Amino acid sequence: MNDSFPAGAAARIVARIDALNDWIGRVVAWLTLAMVFAVVAIVIGRYFFGLGAQWLTESVVWMHAAVFLLGAAYTLRHDEHVRVDVFYRAATPRRRALVDLCGTVLFLLPLCVFILYQGIPYVLASWQIRESSREAAGLPALYFLKALMPIAAALLSLQGIALLLRSYLVLRLPRSEPH
Questions:
Q1: In this predicted model, what pLDDT tens digit does every residue of 71-113 receive, in sequence order?
Q2: pLDDT band with cut points at 50, 70 and 90 for residue 140
Q3: For residue 175, is pLDDT > 80?
Q4: Residues near 150 by beta carbon (within 8 Å), at least 6 away in sequence
Q5: Which DSSP string do the residues of the chain spell out, in sequence order?
Q6: Rounded CA gap, 83 and 118, in Å?
Q7: Can you state the angle between helices 142-171 and 109-128, rounded to 10 degrees?
């Protein structure tokens, strides 16, 4: 089969995107441990010493947002996202590749483009005013957290491209004859 896009190039691109999102996923996963320690500190401080720390409470929300946003591409890369797989589970690799290709083109990439289109002006406005927490004792620099939204969309787009290329590689294989 003579294709205009060589399989070797596609495989190298997929490997690089996968490696990037694997690295980010492993780094961000450490925030879950930090969240556990922060929640324990909040509970001990509040219930044993009567102390509260708004900044610490907000930091848990921020870490959770970072794990969710930056971990989305890692989750897609490892095929651990939510999927209605009544038919997908029993499908052949070619049919799965076709479903992945169509789902990526029709749903994932348009959603990522929409998030980027709507999110970038939103984030820029937050940066312009140096937005911070509404709480006096809250965290400053809320604009850093908001900047994760377009970054997450970009990483998810990249992983979507890797999924497209992986599907392309499966679909370009010759069909095997049923026995």
A1: 999 999 998 887 777 778 888 999 999 999 999 999 999 999 9
A2: very high
A3: no
A4: 115, 116, 119, 120, 123
A5: ---SS-HHHHHHHHHHHHHHHHHHHHHHHHHHHHHHHHHHHHHHHHHHH----HHHHHHHHHHHHHHHHHHHHHHHHTT-S----TTTTTS-HHHHHHHHHHHIIIIIHHHHHHHHHHHHHHHHHHHHTT---SSTTS-S-HHHHHHHHHHHHHHHHHHHHHHHHHHHHHHTSPPPPP-
A6: 26
A7: 160
String of b and e for 108-123 (b: at least 16 CB within 10 Å)?
Answer: bbeebeebbeebeeeb
| Rounded Cα–Cα distance for residues 39 and 57 (Å) | 8
Q: What is the pLDDT of residue 2?
A: 53
Q: Which structure tokens are listed for 46?
A: 């509040």
Evaluate whether 139 touches 58 at the Cβ level (below 8 Å): yes
How many angstroms separate the CA atoms of 106 and 61, rounded? 32
Q: What gap in Å lies between CA 114 and CA 122, rounded to an integer?
A: 12
What is the reported pTM? 0.87
Please give the structure tokens belonging to residue 19: 């490696």
Residue 94 tokens, joined: 């070619």
What's the number of CA atoms in the CB half-sphere (13 Å) around residue 58?
A: 15
